[in-house]
Amino acid sequence: MKGTSLTLFLTAGMAGVLAVSCAKNDRMPGLDDDAKEICFSMVPVKTVTRAATGFSNFPTDSAFGTRAYYLPQGKSWLQTDDEADLYIDTERISCRDGVWKAWESGKSYWWPKAGNLSFYSWAPYNLLDKGLSVDNKNGIRISGWSVKNTPGYGGSTNYGGDAPNDGSTDILVAGTYDVSSATNADAIANGAKIQFSHALCKVRFVISLDSDDTDKEWRVYSVALRDIYTQGDFSGGMWGSHSNMCDYIPDPKTTEPLKAGSFTEIFPVTMMLPQPVNPSVSRKPRIEIKCWDGKTLVDDGKGNKIPDYSNLTGVLYGNTTELLRWKEGTNMTYHLYLTTGNGEYIEFDAATSDWTEADGDNIYMR
């Protein structure tokens, strides 16, 4: 904040001195009994499925980071964010006795008498040490974020707190804009509302028979997800500058015989980087699947008969299918249906099981 503006009061005994030095600052809350301390109210993180909408509470034993910016009365964030002054520098917000505030620093912040505040918040807090930056012109930015090309990586969501060194945690971001003591009585009384959204995405593949095959016992032999970007920059609520293209290959393991009416997981829930909407011509993100019918054998060249795992091999390309619907906040589950009988093929149905609705049309792979 510019000039001699003060937003932090340490003790009531300093009131007289501070009042003299900041008498013309319309951001100063005053020293009367009506001054309200800034606290926060956590809006549950929204999750959406085909069946219902649910919510996940931000854990009260965790923490998040926030910064606040001030604009004078009559100005709004969307029109004049570049004119905003820093009001609260980076703070770690935690919960005690049901109250979310800057407990760990021991500082108290107060709502301005006039004008409004806008907040940028993020979790885990220590993303600041891993490439995250915040300012009023660019909002929340993350540079050079990397995920591992390991199936199952980051599958368990860990809200808030501190991110592990491998970066496998869920990234949550939030913007709360134009909160005024004159027009937002609920925020002043109960806390500025923080509603997080997911910056990364999750992907999972399961498979089933569309109908039981009495003549064969179909199994999946191998799965590979290829040409997937694992590094990028986050800015403006989306990812760009993608790099470090990798393959995701689960440990080879032949599944049990597939059955109609039940799904077998062949690629576990994995935290991934949202992919570019328009991939380059040279890049073909795809999933490759090999199946065996439990019956067909081939000669291994040494006189031995071995399973023919290539008798049904499918490749699903991302530049013509739903593979590129991996957007921020989506948890995409691909339902694969192996159709038996004459001309076996695999049918893909893109659906969501969590976070944000992102249904897709059926896709056929022969």
Shape: elongated
Structural class: mainly beta
Major pleated sheet:
6 strands, antiparallel
Mean pLDDT: 75
Q: Secondary-structure blueprint of this entry?
A:
Layout: H1 15-21, E1 40-43, E2 45-48, E3 53-56, E4 63-71, H2 77-80, E5 85-96, E6 99-101, E7 116-123, E8 132-135, E9 139-146, E10 172-180, H3 185-190, E11 192-195, E12 197-198, E13 201-209, E14 219-235, E15 238-248, E16 264-272, E17 286-292, E18 297-299, E19 305-307, E20 312-317, E21 330-339, E22 345-355, E23 362-365
Q: Can you give a write-up of this model?
A:
The protein has 366 residues and is mainly β. It has two domains: 37-198, Sandwich (Immunoglobulin-like), CATH 2.60.40; 201-365, Immunoglobulin-like, CATH 2.60.40. 5% of the residues lie in helices and 44% in strands. The chain has three helices and 23 strands. The strands form six sheets. Strands 6-5-4-7-10-12 form a six-stranded antiparallel sheet. Strands 8, 9, 14, 15, 17 and 20 form a six-stranded antiparallel sheet that branches. A five-stranded mixed sheet has the order 16-13-21-22-23, with no helix packed on it. The radius of gyration is 26 Å and the shape is elongated. Residues 1-32, 48-52 and 352-366 have low confidence and may be disordered.
